[in-house]
Amino acid sequence: MRIGLVGTGRIGASHAAAIAARPEVTELLLADADRDRARDVAGRVGAHVAGDIATLLSPGAVDGLVITAATAAHPELILSGVRAGIPVFCEKPVAPDVPGTVEVLREVEKSGVQVHIGFMRRFDAGYTRARQALRDGELGELHRVHAVTCDAAPPPAAYIPTSGGIFRDCHVHDFDILRWVTGREVTDVYAYGANRGASYFAEAGDVDTTAAVLRMDDGTMVTLQGSRYNGGGYDVRMELAGSRGTIAVGLDERAPLLSAEEGVDFPTGQPWQEFWSRFTPAYEAEIGAFTRMVADGGESPCTVADALEAVLVADAADKSMREGRPVQVAEVRPQL
User: Fold this and answer.
1) Is 80 exceeded by the pLDDT of residue 75?
2) CA–CA separation, 207 vs 223, rounded Å?
3) What is the percent of the chain with per-residue pLDDT over 90, rounded to a whole number?
4) Which CATH architecture has domain 122-273+310-331?
5) 230-253 pLDDT, tens per residue?
6) Dihedral, CA atoms, 170, 149, 174, 214, nearest 10 degrees?
7) Which of 146, 178, 222, 292 has its Cα between 20 and 30 A from that of 171?
8) Is the peptide bond preceding residue 271 cis, with omega within 30 degrees of 0?
9) Options 3.40.50.720, 3.30.1700.10, 1.10.8.60, 3.30.450.40; which CATH number does 2-113 get?
10) Closest to 194 (Cα-Cα) out of 97, 324, 328
């Protein structure tokens, strides 16, 4: 199997290493506007540098295309792969905005070519276990969910103006995994935001601290918290409480928590500090799912339509925060 990858920045280099380690991948071809960077990554992972993106998309060049380029390039790269009849994996988001996402969705659905959008939490063992526990009836009837996503340190200032805001950039992962684990849809959200750190968040019209209440279509209540400044470490968790029991994702030896109870020293491990190390097994499993999809033509584990639903919740949350009122997802849903 020959895989092409476009974009060899930090996330692209990490994905390249995961792809190169797959036994079914016989050749990995890299393309980047910065050819020196592509050569550096290729040397580290044992890949080859393609002449350009057009080379990757030429007939018979690759069996699958992985896109880890800048967000603005995602739509055209996805559609270029689809038009060439090549299965595509693309890091989230599909596009910088909802109209762009809808445009991609329409063409992808007409083409019949499989596109896998990279929401890696769907491949994390903890979230998978929680999803199965809910489906097996282990938790009983679901009553409430609590989700947390907190970075140990904020992104660089230059990134924030083009990030789309914390709900679209960061919490979109919470919104996707909430749908995937519960099997339900979000109907409305009331979100808050605050600036508790560097001024560059406020200067870009963004916030660095969040809280929200969401309601699912079956009445389940969801609370959400987030921060770009979590001094304890990188904290990503989900708690699902039902009529028979409660299960927690991310409550492991490296959870960045400190118990105030006497005699309790859990967790005792070194706290997580960033996303890649926390989710390395999930990223690797995600790439494995993509290569299996390429090999056998199976269904996408996370479609463009799935990605659109998560972004719509993020848009509703952002609108709610800015307008100071609850917002129904239907208010931001486009006509398809």
Assistant:
1) yes
2) 18
3) 96
4) 2-Layer Sandwich (3.30)
5) 999 999 999 999 999 999 999 999
6) -110
7) 292
8) no
9) 3.40.50.720
10) 324
